[in-house]
What we know:
two-stranded antiparallel sheet
Amino acid sequence: MKDRDFLFILIFTEIKQTLPKSLYDMKPQFVTDDHGKKLAVILPINDYNRMMNELDELEDIKLYDVAKKSDQKFIDAEQAFKEIDKKRAVEQM
């Protein structure tokens, strides 16, 4: 094993320990019909909340990717707030 490979494994192990518990570690219970067909899932509330947070983060990443691909002009927040305040002042006249 090369030193570089060992370093990668060491860094990966450190990062993995700081990551949140995987969704694949959840312990769902299934509600089934008489034929064994799954109809619903029962999750511990902590697993449900973690899943919802990860889905929210995934949605944010997708929206970011869409925004980056668009041809929109981006301005910093301070400039945006100035333009909004200016527009509101004009509308109130």
